[in-house]
Write a structure and sequence with these properties.
single chain; Nucleotidyltransferase, domain 5; Glucose Oxidase, domain 1; 8-stranded mixed beta sheet; ATPase_NBD; Aliphatic_acid_kin_short-chain; kinase; nucleotide-binding
């Protein structure tokens, strides 16, 4: 990707959540932010903010979109077009879409049908993020036909996983077979926080805990500026109780629901949507009550207390592993608009005592974004993910090699990581076996980690595909021999359902 000079392009950043869409149009040193909040409730709030533009006044108004995600997406694109025409700006020539559940890959990647298919495939991981994201992408492509469009992944780490295999309590063959790796999320928010600490407070290599409290909630451990843990690991419902997401619940709870007849096709909606603080408050997720109103309503005190306790428990768990963590960042709309939350949560987590909580609250009440006692420091950070997205678009880092698998077909679903060998050697069965039509195939040989079949005629691999299915070995058919030959002797990440092949070594 060729770097884009800031003065050459109008850049559009779109940050889709599960209940909001935030966007920013950059034109030299001027900027317009357009946000639609509370999607899913009966009434939405729209905010249009002009920065370094004195000819226009900021606006706040209401819409009644409800839970119509496509209408929310089309409304945003319409508002963006209106702003561009009003300001007489050129249409953006580059758009960055913040996405979460797009599978493992580069921080930034050109939007393609394959990426959209992966977003559709991973829809089960998100409350509504992927559905809303796909709607926004569809309307953006239709309205800005000449625009380069990219996805910017929100993964906390670009590596294959935050975990080492010995930290995942399953057999190694299960870990490999089902791709039990976690990248973590709220990665862009983490980058924005660390950038603010360095620029504003002169802290280049922060060590401590970052707690994000918005619609999504996450706790992230950072050591010397690098993320070492993130509570939103595999899906949006991981970690503490959130806006309308259940938070981590015992696996037995889900198994019980299924065993007692709960429809499997409704499980994602129940865990990801009709739950969280709305579930604790016994309110429908499409009511008129916002999370902020729940937090400030004495009627919902018990729900609020349990919500805060779930966040505090995650912090307690991490600080129990590392007693030297005394620095705490709190970011996200709820944390910065309600400074009392940070000391309250740390008190519940047994990090500070009531007197320290009172002192920290007193300091933060004066409008300060920092507070400290003898042993504890708190930073309240207003994050700007759009600036991070813009910077990534302007100065992309080298990306791993992503192989073109257009036209490939998943024979057996699964995920694995390993070295690709032609056929398989008798001494190494911990590899991915690539087969061409004329490759010898030993039915009695021990199975490899995965198969890649490559040829112009899929029927040539009928017997081999049957063997793979009977042994439950992840298998991908590729109709490009040229691409397949490039894979030999490379170490790759292979995800057959999404037809993803990425060099990782």
């Amino acid at each position: 990707m060729t770097p884009i000079l800031p003065h050459e392009r109008t850049i559009l950043s779109i940050n889709v959540g599960s209940s909001s869409i935030k966007s920013a149009i950059f034109n030299r040193d001027q900027r317009v932010d357009i946000n639609i909040n509370y999607i899913g409730l009966k009434k939405q709030t729209v905010k249009i903010t002009f920065k370094n533009i004195t000819t226009h006044e900021n606006k706040i108004f209401s819409l009644f979109i409800g839970d119509d995600l496509d209408l929310a997406a089309s409304t945003l694109i319409s508002l963006l077009n209106t702003a561009i025409r009003t300001l007489d700006w050129k249409k953006p020539s580059i758009i960055g879409h913040r996405v979460k559940f797009a599978g493992h890959g580069a921080d930034i990647e050109k939007l393609s049908p394959r990426i959209e298919q992966i977003l559709e495939f991973n829809d089960y991981l998100s409350s509504r993020h992927n559905k809303l994201c796909l709607s926004v992408i569809s309307h953006a492509k239709s309205s800005f036909k000449e625009t380069q469009q990219f996805i910017v992944r929100d993964q906390a780490v670009s590596d294959l996983s935050l975990h080492t295999p010995n930290e995942i309590p399953f057999e190694s063959k299960i870990i490999r077979r089902y791709g039990l790796i976690s990248h973590g999320y709220h990665g862009l928010a983490s980058k924005a926080c660390l950038r603010t600490l360095e620029k504003k407070y002169g802290i280049p290599n922060f060590t401590g805990l970052l707690t994000q409290i918005g619609s999504g909630v996450s706790v992230t451990a950072i050591v010397n500026g690098a993320i070492s843990y993130n509570s939103m690991k595999f899906a949006a419902c991981d970690g503490p109780v959130m806006h309308n997401r259940s938070g981590s619940q015992p696996l037995g709870l889900v198994l019980r629901m299924l065993k007692y007849g709960f429809p499997a096709n409704r499980l994602s909606e129940a865990v990801n949507r009709n739950s969280g603080i709305y579930g604790l408050s016994d309110l429908p997720s499409n009511s008129t009550v916002t999370v902020e109103e729940i937090l400030g309503d004495e009627q919902h005190k018990e729900a609020c207390d349990n919500y805060l306790l779930s966040i505090a428990c995650e912090i307690f768990r991490l600080t129990s592993k590392n007693k030297d963590l005394h620095h705490f960042i709190f970011s996200g709309g709820l944390a910065t608009r309600h400074p009392w939350l940070a000391p309250k949560i740390l008190q519940i987590a047994k990090i500070i005592n009531p007197d320290e909580a009172d002192e920290l609250t007193r300091q933060l009440k004066n409008g300060s974004h920092t507070a400290s006692t003898a042993f504890t420091e708190i930073y309240l950070v207003d994050i700007d993910e759009h600036e991070i997205i813009r910077n990534i678009l302007l100065t992309p880092k080298p990306s791993p090699i992503i192989f073109d698998t257009t036209g490939s077909i998943c024979e057996v679903a699964g995920t694995t990581i390993g070295k690709v060998l032609h056929g398989i050697t008798p001494t190494d069965y911990s590899a991915i076996s690539i087969n061409f039509a004329d490759t010898p195939f030993d039915l009695k040989a021990p199975p490899p980690l995965a198969y890649i079949f490559a040829g112009t005629d899929r029927s040539s691999f009928f017997v081999r595909a049957s063997v793979a299915r009977s042994r439950e070995i992840p298998t991908l058919f590729i109709n490009s021999i040229k691409t397949a030959k490039k894979l030999i002797n490379r170490s790759i990440y292979l995800d057959t359902p999404t037809r993803t092949i990425i060099e990782y070594d």
